[in-house]
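Postdoc handover notes: sequence design on the structure in folder B. Input tokens:
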């Protein structure tokens, strides 16, 4: 015991953009931190889509609070439908240069044995994606799944390849049917994680004309040629979904909902880069 406390105040650089789309406002905050990590904080607010109904309150005769209703009463005579918001972030990584590889990390418990006498051991297995089609993945809570973009030719002082790790936050899977018009046009919502070879013309996850397309544009088109991802200039696409079951507390103007993800340096540095922060 040193009987002493050591603390430093954190300082963050936040770059923000706000998009007002229909009845919602989306604030996208890119947060750069002194420990070398970055965070994307997406803030959702605005006014929920609503419809007038004859019901004034929820009771035995009111379907709006029952399990099989697709909306919730948020005020007298006002129902807000259940809905989801989907975002896609195009992350053009260059970790220590443009030639990178993309990996997935999955953790699992070790079997009982001489290597695991107290039954508390677990391992993390890292696998590298060879091609674009292999790199369509979704979250896996039991595996504590994360993804990384690493430089296969540059190492830190411990001999580890420099990398940045994408750590998902809260996310969702789509409820809209696979053969629905929305889902055909927005196939980027089929997976949380995608990786493609860099191409300056490949900018939008749902393609250039998402509203009037027949579907299939964007990511499915970008990876149709199934290019190699090993030691290449790669782009990661992260899909973030929010399942919104409306509450009365969100009417008439919503408090802000925060969702996002993190990018953590993984052996990019040799030690905690914030150790030199002055008192
Ligand atoms: Cu919403």
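Designed sequence:
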């Amino acid at each position: 015991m040193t009987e002493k406390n050591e603390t430093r105040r954190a300082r963050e650089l936040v770059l923000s953009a706000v998009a007002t789309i229909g009845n919602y406002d989306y604030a996208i905050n890119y947060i750069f931190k002194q420990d070398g990590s970055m965070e994307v904080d997406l803030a959702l607010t605005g006014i929920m889509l609503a419809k007038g109904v004859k019901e004034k309150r929820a009771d035995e005769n009111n379907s709006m609070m029952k399990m099989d209703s697709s909306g919730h009463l948020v005020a007298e005579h006002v129902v807000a439908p259940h809905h989801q918001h989907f975002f896609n972030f195009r992350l053009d990584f260059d970790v220590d240069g443009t030639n990178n590889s993309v990996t997935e990390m999955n953790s699992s418990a070790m079997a009982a044995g001489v290597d695991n006498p107290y039954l508390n051991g677990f391992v993390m297995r890292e696998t590298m994606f060879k091609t674009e089609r292999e790199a369509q993945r979704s979250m896996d809570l039991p595996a504590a799944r994360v993804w990384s973009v690493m430089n296969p030719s540059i190492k830190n002082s411990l001999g580890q390849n420099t990398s940045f790790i994408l750590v998902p936050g809260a996310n969702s899977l789509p409820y809209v049917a696979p053969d629905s018009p929305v889902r055909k046009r927005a196939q980027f919502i089929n997976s949380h994680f995608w990786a493609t070879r860099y191409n300056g013309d490949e900018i939008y996850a749902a393609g250039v004309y998402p509203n009037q397309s027949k579907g299939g544009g964007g990511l499915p088109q970008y990876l149709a040629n199934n290019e190699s991802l090993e030691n290449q200039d790669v782009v990661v696409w992260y899909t973030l979904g929010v399942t919104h079951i409306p509450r009365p507390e969100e009417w008439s103007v919503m408090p802000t909902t925060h969702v996002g993800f993190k990018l953590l340096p993984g052996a990019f540095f040799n030690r905690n880069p914030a150790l030199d922060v002055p008192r």
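Context for whoever picks this up: The mean pLDDT is 94. Don't rerun without checking with the PI first.
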